[in-house]
Design a protein that fits this description.
CATH topology of the largest domain: TIM Barrel
Strand content: 5-15%
Strand order of the largest sheet: 4-5-8-9
Number of domains: 2
CATH class of the largest domain: Alpha Beta
Number of helices: 20
CATH architecture of the largest domain: Alpha-Beta Barrel
Radius of gyration: 23 Å
Helix content: 40-55%
Shape: globular
Length: about 475
């Protein structure tokens, strides 16, 4: 029997141990998709206690606490930070089998040197020890990034954002980490949302382009793409909860836009047409600028309308969608490919049933002399656990080039989530080592080590073109 989460955690054999400790462990991190606040990074935010850095806004933990019968008061409500921490400590032993059990203890170990199990009995002592560290030097937001050996952080930013803090960070000389924006134009694509007209007005203001037509709208969007590019942006991101496509013309898209600008709701078919043309337009810009385009597909959000109305989005009421993606995804990618050539593209689905579809789809559009130009993105959200990661990687390796995979990201709002890269690396290496032990691939440690380092870091560095 092995010790709990020892130095060889998840490493099943000697090949895995060697590949992890000799090749992967010290590799830097490129976090090419996250939801960290650039303001908090710039200000090197400090945290008054472990609840603030661990539980504020973490809907992963919130969902499990609710499942454990914890009242909302002790999750997102009026209870004290200590009471909320104790409620999480009560829940942690019940999370065995969920990745949060391992992530919780990895974060305690790596950032605070605490190897005790977290439960109701140990919680008061852990509360005191972590809080003492958080209130000492070296435990601000930037410190967690640098301690994790992160070289690039790509935040998620609305096109109307001023990028004030990214610009300030570019001028910093004492923080050797690139903090770059990502272009997330969802509010400009969701034409049926009540906030659409208000968002267009904001776009008009920040772009200094009067938006009276669809042409004006596209010009304003393009101006923001080029502004983001000037600040160092190398990647866009799109939440495409339902994959849509419809044949259309610019004239049709313009008529649909004009109806929405008047405050009218449009039909589902017209929404498909508007999104298709607008996404294709943006894809052509991304291709011109050498950006990568991310598509996050098949999330079913805000299912509990009562709680959504009370708490808003991103509070733990989302799940996996099961809409078909193959035909609309193929048609959209093909449209952009025919118009301008696809940009580098990373495709994620929240539904693991889509794994084979995506793994096969990316092979249709590879080329241009770019290794892994079209990527099957890493296991996402409900899938970023051991089984979900293995399923995604096996689909990719069976149908594509696992060796060209750009690897893990955090997709997190927490500065402690970088341990997920360690978790991912251990899982990925265990898969490769299993192939070796089974005689499926040669035991060439030097070659396999370079492959591992590519998946950990080098592939993403080359793919995004970061100057590091």
């Amino acid at each position: 029997m092995r010790d709990f989460m020892d130095e060889n955690f998840l490493l099943k054999n000697e090949t895995a141990v060697q590949l992890y400790h000799d090749y992967a462990k010290q590799m830097p991190i490129i976090d090419y998709h996250c939801h960290l606040s650039p303001k908090e990074i710039y200000e090197n935010k400090t945290f008054k206690n472990i609840t603030e850095i661990w539980l504020y806004g973490d809907h992963y933990k919130w969902r499990l606490m609710r499942s454990n019968g914890i009242e909302e008061k002790f999750i997102s409500g009026s209870a004290s930070d200590y009471e909320k921490f104790m409620a999480w400590a009560k829940t942690v032993p019940m999370t065995m089998g969920n990745p949060l059990y391992n992530w919780t203890h990895l974060e305690l170990q790596r950032f605070f040197g605490i190897f005790d199990l977290l439960d109701e009995e140990s919680a008061p002592q852990i509360w005191e020890k972590v809080n003492a560290l958080l209130n000492s030097e070296g435990f601000g937001a930037r410190d967690f990034i640098t301690k994790s050996n992160v070289k690039v952080v790509c935040t998620t930013d609305d096109p109307t954002d001023s990028l004030e803090y990214h610009l300030k960070l570019k001028e910093e000389n004492d923080f050797d980490v690139k903090v770059l924006p990502s272009f997330r134009p969802d509010k400009g694509l969701e034409i049926n949302r009540d906030t659409f007209g208000e968002w267009v007005e904001t776009l008009q203001t920040v772009s200094s382009i009067s938006i009276e037509s669809y042409d004006d709208f596209l010009k304003a969007l393009e101006s923001r793409v080029r502004f983001f590019d000037s600040v160092g942006c190398r990647v866009s991101d799109h939440a495409i909860d339902q994959m849509m496509y419809a044949d259309t013309t610019k004239e049709e898209a313009a008529d649909i836009f004009n109806q929405a600008l008047k405050g009218n709701k449009v039909s589902i078919e017209d929404e498909k047409k508007y999104k298709t043309f607008t996404l294709a337009f943006l894809g052509q810009l991304y291709q011109e600028l050498g950006w990568a385009m991310q598509m996050h597909i098949n999330a079913l959000r805000n299912n509990n309308s009562r709680m959504f109305e009370a708490m808003g989005p991103d509070t733990g009421w989302d799940s996996i969608n099961d809409e078909g993606i193959a035909k609309p995804l193929s048609k959209l990618l093909n449209l952009i490919e025919q118009e301008s050539g696809l940009p580098k593209t990373i495709i994620y689905s929240l539904n693991p049933n889509d794994n084979h579809t995506i793994a096969s789809m990316i092979g249709n559009f590879q080329g241009g002399g770019i290794p892994g130009k079209i990527q099957f993105g890493t296991a996402w959200w409900f899938n970023d656990n051991k089984d979900g990661m293995l399923e995604q990687m096996k689909s990719l390796s069976n149908m594509g080039l696992f060796s060209r995979f750009i690897g893990m990201l955090t997709d997190s709002r927490s500065f402690l989530s970088y341990t997920r890269h360690e978790y991912f690396r251990r899982v990925a290496i265990s898969l490769i080592a299993e192939w070796v032990e089974n005689g499926e691939v040669p035991n060439n440690i030097e070659f396999l080590g370079k492959m591992v380092q590519g998946i950990c870091y080098e592939n993403a560095k080359e793919y995004f073109g970061f100057d590091l």
